[in-house]
Amino acid sequence: MAPEVALRAADIRAWLREHLTGEFAPLVGAGGPGREHEHLELRARWERVLGAAGWIGIGWPAPYGRGATIAEQVVFFEEYARAGGPGRLSHIGEYLLAPTLIAHGTDAQRDRFLPPIARAEELWCQGYSEPGAGSDLAGVRTRAALDEDGAWRVTGQKVWTSLAHVADWCFVLARTDPAATRKDGLSYLLVPMRQPGVEVRPIKQLTGTSEFNEVFFDGARADADLVVGAPGDGWRVATSTLSYERGVATLGQQLGFARELAAVVATARANGTFDDPVTADRIADAWAGLQGLRHHALRALSATAPDPAGASVAKLLWARWHQRLGELAMDVGGAAATIAEAAPYELTDAQRLFLFTRADTIYGGSDEIQRNIVADHVLGRTPRGTR
């Protein structure tokens, strides 16, 4: 590791050690997939502390952010994960919308939205999936039209919208040309959430929590200039956003996976199942798979050009690996792992891991769609339904 990266790691580690104490001590290890319900108000304050210290947008290029190198960003995410930093409430704005605005937005849009994202003053959600158009993004039916005042009026339904219940804004893929079909005639709109015409309904999950939501737009308003890219160019902009979804933050995600694996190993040692050769072999296989995930991610991040197929391969690899880890956690725990001891029937970490990972191969692009993308880019064919 280069000396400047090592110094940066020490600085990050010291800052996190100093700040994840006192009122923020309960946040260590909190939040994240399956646990987004935890300490929402305290995590929102934590985000603002991160923003004030300049830790939000470190990878954005100057003048919008620090312009940190890939290596420096990796160090930040890994140190954050090692410290047990809580699940991020601002990640959709920071890692999905902000890079999209930097690449495709106007100067006015960047000036308006990037600073409050960097200060964690405005939180975002993503309005892509719909009933009947989940992984089939080109099939969205939400519509938007300009009214007599020149503003966009958005009508339709989105579903599986993470953190919509706390978001201030939503970037919405909507059909603005009713005569067009599939990926043509779509636009990428920035829609305020806190207005008449927007209703958020939580979706209760297997874990008993509700971090996903349905969002209903009934004539919700977006100013005319809040379209990213040209009207009708939403498909290109939206797919660009998806390419940012699996960036440097995946290294931090994998350290979270490592903690989950360590907990499984600790349980196996404590109850003696580690001595079973089959269980020991499954644990060894999980460890080896995790190393493979890390090396694939590092190779993808070091590529000189974007590799959509590589991002899809990464999703295929970690989603199934994580599901198998959930299954291993339950098997190691034995019959007792299936029981919730008493009201209010709070899940154990192993139970939550198992239940939430059932969705890993669906959300963020289903396995079937990821395989289509790989086929498109590696075999040179066009997947059905995207023409």
UniProtKB/TrEMBL annotation:
Pfam families: Acyl-CoA_dh_1 (PF00441), Acyl-CoA_dh_M (PF02770), Acyl-CoA_dh_N (PF02771)
Keyword field contains Flavoprotein: yes
A GO term, aspect molecular function: flavin adenine dinucleotide binding
UniProt GO cellular component terms: plasma membrane
Record keywords: FAD, Flavoprotein, Oxidoreductase
Coiled-coil zones: none
Co-factor requirement: FAD
Segments forming domain Acyl-CoA oxidase/dehydrogenase middle: 125-218
Keyword Ligase assigned: no
Domain Acyl-CoA dehydrogenase/oxidase C-terminal: 232-378
Record domain Acyl-CoA dehydrogenase/oxidase N-terminal: where: 12-121
Entry's family note: Belongs to the acyl-CoA dehydrogenase family.
Annotated PANTHER family: ACYL-COA DEHYDROGENASE, ACYL-COA DEHYDROGENASE FADE29
Name recorded for this polypeptide: Acyl-CoA dehydrogenase family protein
Organism: Dactylosporangium aurantiacum
